[in-house]
Amino acid sequence: MTEQPGTDEVRPPVRVERDGVVATVVIDRPKALNALSPDVLRALAAAFDELAAEGDAVRGVLVVGEGGRAFVAGADIRSLATLTPEEGAESARLGHRVAAVIEAFPAPVIACVDGFALGGGLELAMACDMIYATDASAFGQPEVRLGLIPGFGGTVRLPRAVGLSFAKELIYTGRRIDAATAEAAGLVARRFPDREALLAGARATIDEVAQNAWTAVALAKRVLVEASGTPTATASDLEVAGFADAFRTDDMREGVAAFIEKREPRFSGR
């Protein structure tokens, strides 16, 4: 989890690649195992803000770590070592801001994990809509081994992903789990033999999603994010509101008309 000096610092820590309606956000600090320094976090937030401004031109985002050893091996420990409690809180707020930007993004975001996803790396992955992983991946929240606790959302999202008891076990012990265990626990949605298959599988999912009404996908994501962890009555109200909002879109009218007329829909994203 520690940062090693090298050539990583002379190039932007995050880059965005485009292929049609799919964007790939690459965390590019391989010598530091893609550790989440404040600069990386700010760059991630800026990248998602810029992509969100493009509206339905972006139908999905893949988040990957450069180098093949780690998705993100954790927070940048060097940057945490000298922080005051107040500065620590501000660091946590920055991590939560990145997670919030990803959750608010109107299209699906897939964390493509190949290697370590530890600490802040797992927290970043859990902020995405789903986690796809290679067999070589490992997951964990090892903060207690440093005298810390998860600070970027791990105590919130990990119990939702794997259940409260297993989340407590992972957080209290700092234990790592492999991709097969993570998949069985519901943390990982799909598992692949290698990076090439991982990226191809994630792209295939985004391509499938892109065939649907962008407005409906965005509404479904909004309801899923806002309703998560709320009481059933509150969640039901959020779903009703989202269902009503769908009736305000041209895509809903087109989708229903296409079904009745037995033809393929021509969604406009409005």
Automatic annotation (TrEMBL):
InterPro entries: ClpP/crotonase-like_dom_sf, Enoyl-CoA_hyd/isom_CS, Enoyl-CoA_hydra/iso, Enoyl-CoA_hydra_C
Recorded catalytic activity of this chain's protein: a 4-saturated-(3S)-3-hydroxyacyl-CoA = a (3E)-enoyl-CoA + H2O; a (3S)-3-hydroxyacyl-CoA = a (2E)-enoyl-CoA + H2O
A Pfam family of this chain: ECH_1
Assigned keywords, A-Z: Lyase
Entry's family note: Belongs to the enoyl-CoA hydratase/isomerase family.
Protein name: Enoyl-CoA hydratase-related protein
Organism: Agromyces tropicus
